[in-house]
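DEPOSITED CHAIN:
***
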Amino acid sequence: MKFCVLAKISKRTVSFWYQSDSNPYAPLKMKESNEIPLYFYVNGNDFIFGAAARERFYKNDPYAYGNYFEIVKDPSKHFIIYGNQKPVKQLFYYGIEQYLSHFLNTVIYKADSIESYRQQFPLRFLFDDDIEDNEKSLIETLFQEAGYFNLDRVGYNHTLFNILTQKQVLPNNKAILLMNGIDDVLYLKLYKNSKANVLGSAKLVGQGADPRVKILADMIVEYIILQNSYLSINKENEISFLLPFCAGLLQNINPIINGEAELSDGNRYWFNVRERNLNDRLHYYANDGMIFTAIDDLLKVNNLSVDDVMILLGSEEINTLYFTEKLLKKYHHVIALQPLDVKDTMQSVFQEIASTNYSVKIKAPAAAPVMTRPPLPTPKSPPPLPPKKESSAPKSVNIPRLPELKVPQSTKNNSVKPPPLPPKKS
């Protein structure tokens, strides 16, 4: 059976997809979702990856771990599993392999353990914009050291550009500025064209969402804190966490916006806010200039004019009518990525993987090359032993064996005879 598993990795979550044989790609779900929050719990032989570990983490359980890409910066941090001490960076490896074992057992119905599949298991990584190059190398090295040799990174953006060019959404003669918002950070990447590498990039903290999305998230958090005064939460973190949720709310907005919002600890809280109050706050928002300055600087450094570039809005937090209209006041070519474009791109990614027959694609990261063990030398036949030297000690004398003693058989054995029986009387 031919198959492949793809893991999309960001600072906060990991999402899984798979393809087997000629079937279309599908989300790899465990329980309800294919998107797993990046939290871990290890105690003795118990290992939990995902929402249940997150719950323990926010209850200050000493055996629960979060903020993975921060704690790996401390080489002294360890965890203990199966009685062995492991560096904290291996938490990620144990979590991913738990999902790969789930895939083997429940999707392709293999009862074998994951150990027998590691070397040839087709595993692909799709790194989100918030993952730095050294963090990508860390993840790849973890799996290479564990014996996964069929690894590769997915060039998602170039596949996306090819799809949009085929649909005639992107022209061939323009540069592309891809914008993505993740956790209220705006990531900008400038490409010379759909085939070229990145010309330049920028990152703007606090600008990763349509202003209305961010204001709505702020209002929801304020409402929850007001109604639940006992809560002790980080407001900025919760606003960032709620941005995708709020982007969905604004697609079908009502005068009264209410419902249940899930915070970063997994708990859900009721909220109720008014659209009128949202619009009132929007009048006081005046941070758009930071984004315009960042775009202008990228274009100026690369000798590009406004007419030379196509701005592509990638994430739902900025993929809104309000944000698009703001950009169009200054930039002539702005388009928004559609859900169908994402679906077609993922389908094309798996087609490219299948076209290689899921062959080995390992690439050692430049920052941390994998050290391969040299082959053992071929054993040579041992040299002949030297001839034995005659010893000057006197030779042992063979002493003849003594004759065996034959024990004469006694004639008295059983010499007593029983008396005869008396004659029978007639």
Notes: Residues 257 and 273 are 5 Å apart (CA to CA). The chain has three domains: 3-154, 159-207+287-342, 211-282.
